[in-house]
Backbone:
């Protein structure tokens, strides 16, 4: 910013050369071959404008920027962004219209992101215009863009109608509606797509009589756009239709929009069906209870049975919310014969992602359907998903056990689902066992300490002596997470004694697991527990006949160094004698790790 600082130090009015300095440097930088330098220059526009003052910014800087819009896309994007915040720098809202020419140019360039940013800035500036300025300056800009030769300007124009329409005269409103109609029927698919994405917003600003007579027919045409098989236009119209539905009465929705929504739900393009499935809850909230009961339930269950997995997965993820938003007085009567049979089919779906989507929400049906229906209809489905071959499906079930627990109680839950969890925990495939271990802290948190101690503690301890190292390793990490959930007092009373007793196990792998568990538990245990219970066990293992155990003793002592640093008696009585003994070991690996450990004490 040297040239700005020097200008501010001088009296800019003294010489014409000094006063032109910022513009001159800007011109030089914008002509530089280095894109990054040009980009940095654009980002300093506000500083340059401050140095020039509002009058010269309007008279010199803005015209210069308007005439020199030819650059890399990232530079033009930065310029479009800067201009959106320029109103205070040109003298306030009264002079906001001077920013329209450069943004109009930017809204017509080829690169989409630049046009979108220019349109966004134009919309920001429009809110600062007075109604008179909107009519005099902004509306003519919208008209010019709408009638541009290139589709690029016409796509940008679609996003500007809603911000200027409420502020203009009746005659101009009529002209704008006619222009928007022209855009909706444009030969270029990109323009129709832009119109489809903005028609909902425009509809909210249009008077009700014109909405019904002019805008809704345009929406219906876009929603049924078959020109060049443009499903991209139809899918964008879905969201617009939901916006329009939020404006209309239930009777008007049924008469004017419902056929279009029905067509979308059975559209030949899976992308359109996916869009309606994705937005189904918004649609459900926009229409009334009568339409939901008489029409939407049918269409939702069809989407759940769609031939495309992506559509089924999207609809499946909405099952809980859809059921929750059904009219309370007829909820069960609608779910049981319509939604539930479709859910039962999805449980056995051939696509993993569909089942994962279902598993993420199916547990949430329990509070909606009640205890008896959950036990009779949902629990068998939970069990099937809990035994699914894909871990993400199982995880989604285990992650939401709390919602079922609240409805049917821990006793019923333990009799139904937990046997399946125990079965998986002892599965011959070690990866299945590993998945259950990883889910155990989540399960423990949901079920509580008493239930865990009674039903799951023994299972967790058994994993520490599993024949597969990955299981033993995961089991030690699991202990740390359980201590974080239940607290150190629980750990002292429940698991630490059991872990330390494994140091006397005949199997050296189990003795090593004791050391691994100590490494992990030490991170969450108090220094007193480490000193009183763990250090003596580690010291005793220094005399183990297996070298692998002995060098892991040295590694464990080294890991405990930060905790024991201030406990000189323990270091002198237990740690150092143990490490010195290992430092004289006959095994080279043991000696190496002992020497490493001694270096930190």
Residues:
């Amino acid at each position: 910013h040297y040239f700005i600082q020097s200008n501010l130090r001088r009296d800019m009015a003294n010489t014409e050369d000094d006063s032109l300095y910022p513009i001159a440097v800007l011109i030089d930088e914008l002509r530089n071959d280095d894109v990054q330098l040009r980009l940095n220059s654009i980002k300093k526009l506000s500083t340059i404008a401050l140095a020039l003052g509002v009058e010269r910014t309007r008279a010199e800087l803005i015209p210069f920027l308007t005439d020199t819009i030819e650059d890399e896309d990232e530079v033009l994007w930065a310029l479009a962004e800067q201009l959106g915040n320029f109103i205070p720098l040109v003298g306030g809202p009264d002079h906001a219209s001077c920013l329209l020419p450069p943004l109009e140019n930017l809204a017509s360039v080829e690169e989409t992101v630049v046009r979108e940013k220019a349109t966004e800035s134009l919309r920001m500036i429009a809110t600062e215009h007075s109604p008179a300025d909107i009519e005099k300056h902004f509306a003519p800009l919208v008209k010019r863009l709408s009638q541009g030769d290139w589709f690029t300007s016409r796509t940008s124009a679609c996003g500007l109608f809603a911000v200027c329409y409420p502020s203009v005269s009746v005659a101009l409103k009529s002209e704008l509606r006619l222009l928007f109609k022209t855009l909706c029927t444009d030969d270029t698919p990109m323009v129709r797509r832009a119109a489809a994405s903005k028609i909902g917003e425009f509809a909210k600003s249009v008077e009700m009589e014109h909405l019904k007579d002019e805008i809704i027919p345009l929406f219906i045409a876009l929603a049924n756009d078959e020109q060049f098989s443009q499903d991209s236009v139809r899918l964008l119209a879905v969201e617009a239709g939901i916006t329009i539905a939020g404006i209309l009465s239930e009777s008007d929705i049924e008469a004017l929009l419902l056929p279009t929504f029905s067509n979308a739900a059975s559209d030949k393009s899976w992308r359109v069906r996916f869009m309606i499935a994705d937005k189904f809850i918004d649609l459900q909230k926009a229409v009334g209870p009568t339409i939901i009961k008489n029409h939407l339930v049918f269409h939702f269950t069809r989407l759940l049975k769609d031939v495309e997995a992506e559509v089924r997965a999207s609809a499946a993820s909405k099952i809980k919310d859809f059921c929750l938003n059904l009219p309370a007085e007829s909820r069960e009567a609608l779910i049981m014969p319509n939604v539930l049979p479709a859910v039962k089919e999805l449980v056995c779906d051939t696509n993993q992602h569909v089942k994962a989507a279902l598993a993420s929400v199916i547990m949430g049906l329990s509070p909606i359907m009640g205890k008896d229906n959950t036990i009779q209809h949902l629990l068998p489905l939970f069990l099937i998903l809990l035994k699914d071959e894909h871990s993400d499906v199982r995880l989604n079930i285990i992650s939401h056990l709390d919602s079922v627990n609240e409805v049917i109680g821990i006793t019923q839950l333990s009799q139904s689902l937990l046997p399946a969890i125990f079965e998986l925990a002892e599965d011959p495939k070690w990866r299945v066992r590993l998945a259950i271990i990883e889910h155990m802290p989540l399960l423990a948190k949901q079920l509580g300490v008493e239930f865990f101690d009674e039903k799951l503690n023994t299972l967790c301890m058994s994993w520490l002596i599993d024949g597969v190292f990955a299981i033993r390793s995961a089991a030690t990490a699991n202990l740390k997470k359980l201590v974080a959930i239940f607290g150190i007092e629980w750990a002292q009373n429940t698991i630490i004694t059991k872990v330390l007793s494994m140091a006397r196990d005949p199997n050296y792998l189990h003795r090593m697991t004791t050391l691994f568990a100590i490494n992990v538990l030490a991170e969450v245990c108090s220094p007193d527990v480490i000193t009183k219970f763990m250090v003596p066990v580690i010291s005793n293992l220094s005399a183990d006949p297996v070298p692998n155990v002995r060098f892991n003793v040295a590694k464990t002592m080294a890991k405990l160094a930060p905790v024991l640093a201030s406990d000189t008696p323990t270091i002198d009585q237990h740690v150092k004698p143990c490490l010195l003994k290992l430092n004289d070991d006959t095994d080279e690996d043991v000696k190496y790790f002992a020497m490493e450990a001694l270096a930190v004490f």
Notes: Residues 365-386 form the longest helix (22 residues). Confidence is low (pLDDT under 50) at residues 1-17. The chain is about 75% helix and 0% strand. The radius of gyration is 35 Å.
